[in-house]
Design goal:
45% helix, 7-stranded parallel beta sheet
Length: 427
Amino acid sequence: MRVIYSAVFYLLLPLIFGRLLWRSIKAPEYRNRYWERLGLYRHSFEGSFIWFHAVSVGEAEAAFPLIKRLQQDYPAKKFLITTTTPTGSARVQAVLADSVAHVYLPYDTPDSVARFIAAFRPELGVVMETEIWPNLFAACEAKGIPLCIVNARLSDRSARGYAKIPSLIKPALTCVSQIAAQTQEDAERFVSIGAERERVQSVGNMKFDIDIDSQLPDRGKQLKQEYFAGRFIWIIASTHKNEEAIFLGLYPKLKAMIPKLLLLLVPRHPERFSEVEQLVVGNDLKLITRSSGLKCADETDVFLLDSIGELKLFYAAADLAFVGGSMVPVGGHNILEPAALGVPVMFGPYMDNFREIQSNVLAAEAAVQCSNEAEILSNIGYFHQNRAVRDALAQKGLQFVADNKGALDKIVTLIASLLGRNNARSA
């Protein structure tokens, strides 16, 4: 089956590169370093690496605390981080800089994968969340490279899709040494599509072990004073197409209730920055962008965060957060970042990618879910009028994050067992 898969992949390469070119019209970064996607590199890399793969920004953010911990435990080891998207790439370079090597993950063709492995000679592969690449996994198995999938999650929909091609997926999963799943339900889904039960365990969600700079809350307060003095800041983060329009439509009604309201919009994908800017202007709202360097005036309606890597800082400057990807059927995004910064959190009805977190955070009364626009309006008005209630929600959010930490330590132990504990510190 893998032979057929490889043949189809080769046939699709022109279309795949065509799609990269198309996407580069809005995001030029997609046409840069395209040769890395074929396992071709402009310079050589010495030695072997502990290799992490994080598809994009969300997976990279979850991986950073783990990578930093392992860098401390294995100071002589070299680390390689691969991503798929330019935004993920930019975030890796911003956070880890020269402390790691970084390239795009090659496409899953036998020759591209072979060049990648020859270039970096991984001694261990750590894949974040849900990435199953048959040729890559098989090549690691052939070279004796242990593989683990950590913070692993698998939705019902993805499991059904993988279950349709068992002759491809099951052999790939037999190449994986350990799967550290977020929940027992995720673990069972991996077993259902072919993973060996003894190699799968539920360890919790590493995103609770979020990496927050201790100075970030104070920096957020300073930013608010400098840019948004006197305004009630409602940040809507990680928004998708058709989602910003919902909040822009609500803004006039909210502004009538909260005269000092400022909408702080953060689109999920940088290539949509200009699109969202035009949408704001088209709604006759007064806009300031982060890239302009200008501070908000009294008449400013919307501040557009059109930069990468500053979301946590702007969360820390906000009075109230709404996490996007949840008012349209995208599946939601990480609500733990604002909660860990002590910001009251709201989100919409579409949270399929975070079902357990959604269930548990609501049970803990540590966040608020809004099913529709009317509920958004009523909740924001209520929180604005009741500072004590808002502060209590923020405190419950902080406690919810603290109560669910611990997956990071378990995954560090798992990786140490694969690397060999005697290598730590003395490596």
